[in-house]
Amino acid sequence: MNVAGHWDVVIAGGRIAGAATAWALAPYAERILVVDASRADTFWAQQSTWDRAGNQEWDELGLLDTVLACGAPRTFGHDFRTGNDVVEHHYPQVDDYGFRMSVPREVLDPALMQTAESRGNVTVVRPARVRDVALRNGRVTGATVRTAYGDQPVTSDLLVLADGRRSRNATDLGARPYRTVRSPWVAMLAYYEDLPLPTDRAYFSMSGGSILIATPCGRNQWCIASDVHFEVHGSTGEHPAAAYARLVNEEPLLGPAVARGRRTTAVAGAGRLWMLRRPMTGPGWALVGDSGYHLDPVTAQGTRAALATTRLLRDRVTAHGQIAGLDLDGLTGERDAALDEAWDETEQVCHRRSSL
Ligand SMILES: Cc1cc2nc3c(=O)[nH]c(=O)nc-3n(C[C@H](O)[C@H](O)[C@H](O)COP(=O)(O)OP(=O)(O)OC[C@H]3O[C@@H](n4cnc5c(N)ncnc54)[C@H](O)[C@@H]3O)c2cc1C
User: Fold this and answer.
1) 307 and 234, same structural domain?
2) Which of 123, 163, 229, 233 is the most buried (most CB within 10 A)?
3) Where are the alpha helices (DSSP H) in 61-167?
4) Measuring CA to CA, which residue among 233, 147, 220, 224 is closest to residue 184?
5) Which of 55, 100, 290 maximizes ligand 1 atoms within 8 Å of its Cβ, making it the mutation to test the pocket?
6) Measured in angstroms, how far is the CA atom of residue 18 from the centroid of ligand 1?
7) Residue 219 domain-assigned?
8) CATH at residue 221
9) Which of 271, 300, 322 is the last residue of a domain?
10) Does one domain contain both 123 and 266?
């Protein structure tokens, strides 16, 4: 596809943050280009679970119906096991948002992109890569889109980097992280079918240095995730996937459950990641999602934070009425104020020793 030319908005990255931003900015643009480096059918281990605050963000962006249509059950509470004690938690039902959801990324990401494309002025190219951001007088004016067929120059009124926590483009722009903290946690997960577990409740189980979380995430489908402190792996030399299998098998409820059900994916995950905050905007550019604000997966706040950054950008565009000539000053402060508690939680879990 020939994408060379001018676009109101060019978005690097087409997952949660990129797709939500394309959807949110489309009413203010003539045409938007989304470029994603990965193939549409390629996924890696990243969960997406959120709580009441996440539901509110989806609704703020007009995407809650899309998310609910993904078919994951809503959970209205969870059981929390510590040793032999199990405590039941019920989520307050003060409004329509009092539930948690977990949607596999294989379902969520395409649904979001399909909704964005339904605007009619959003074009998606993948696999393709945004690189070599172009600047004139310190302002971003476009970039190069690298596809299998060669490089194509594009210009834009706004370049949005939704290209994840390892954003090379953010680094090239000089958007240096001004807060960082390294996570001691290794997060692993796998999906299962046919588990004899409730479909309206999640299950948390904590034991020395690790936590297991089982959440229903589709029709007859569950995600079981583990967060294990690196000191635990370090002291035993056990591979994270082996530790995951051992923890699940030994857990009093989950062990018998997985023996009766079926694991449908490999065990995979990520660990010891750097958490960071970068400036959210500069002349002609904005960072949304993990590229500018990366929270520890243990906190399960990444999705909510990605949506919050998209909403802040959308609100700025709404106030201005159009993309061209947008004043992006002050958005970093607004974002940091909005997500302060989430960052504090990330710092707390990152400074924790192995005994939870
Ligand atoms: C193991 C694990 C478990 C997690 N669990 C949870 C959870 O339970 N709840 C929660 O809320 N969050 C969780 N998270 C965090 C959550 O996955 C992220 O916050 C979320 O994926 C951020 O979305 P994003 O769109 O910003 O970035 P990403 O999902 O990383 O997407 C970035 C996209 O940009 C593309 N890209 C990269 N470079 C370029 C380029 N140059 N040009 C074009 N495209 C490019 C990539 O191919 C990718 O598709 C977890 C993360 C991990 C790793």
Assistant:
1) no
2) 163
3) 64-68, 105-117
4) 233
5) 290
6) 10
7) yes
8) 3.30.9.100
9) 271
10) no
Residues within a 6 A CB radius of ligand 1: 12-13, 15-18, 35-38, 45-50, 129-131, 162-164, 169, 187, 189, 269-270, 289-290, 297, 300-304, 306
- Left (φ > 0), alpha (ψ -120 to 50) or beta: where does 66 sit? alpha
Residue (of 19, 197, 39, 209) closest to 117 by Cα position: 19
Amino acid sitting at position 141:
T
Q: How far apart are CA 51 and CA 121, in angstroms?
A: 31
Q: Which residue range forms the structural domain that includes residue 337?
A: 5-48+104-177+275-350
Backbone torsions φ then ψ of 277, nearest 5 degrees: -125, 125
Examine the domain organization and report whether 144 and 33 are in the same domain: yes
What's the total number of domains in the chain? Answer: 2
| Shortest-distance Cα residue to atom 27 of ligand 1 | 164
Alpha-carbon distance of 4 to 25, in angstroms, equals 20
- CATH code of the domain containing 316: 3.50.50.60
Q: Report the residue among 36, 39, 46 best suited for mutation to probe ligand 1: largest number of ligand atoms under 8 A from its CB.
A: 46
- Pair (164, 43) in one structural domain: yes
Residue type (1 letter), 70 = C
Minimum CA distance residue for ligand 1 atom 29 = 15
Q: Whose CA is nearest to atom 23 of ligand 1?
A: 16
Say whether both 40 and 136 belong to one domain.
yes
Of 47, 61, 113, best ligand 1 pocket probe by most atoms within 8 Å of the beta carbon: 47
In a domain, 310, yes or no: yes
**pLDDT tens digit at each of 356 positions of the chain:** 899 999 999 999 999 999 999 999 999 999 999 999 999 888 888 889 999 999 999 999 999 999 999 999 999 999 999 999 999 999 999 999 999 999 999 999 999 999 999 999 999 999 999 999 999 999 999 999 999 989 999 999 999 999 999 999 999 999 999 999 999 999 999 999 999 999 999 999 998 778 999 999 999 999 999 999 888 777 778 899 999 999 999 999 999 999 999 999 999 999 989 999 999 999 999 999 999 999 999 999 999 999 999 999 999 999 999 999 999 999 999 999 999 999 999 999 999 876 54
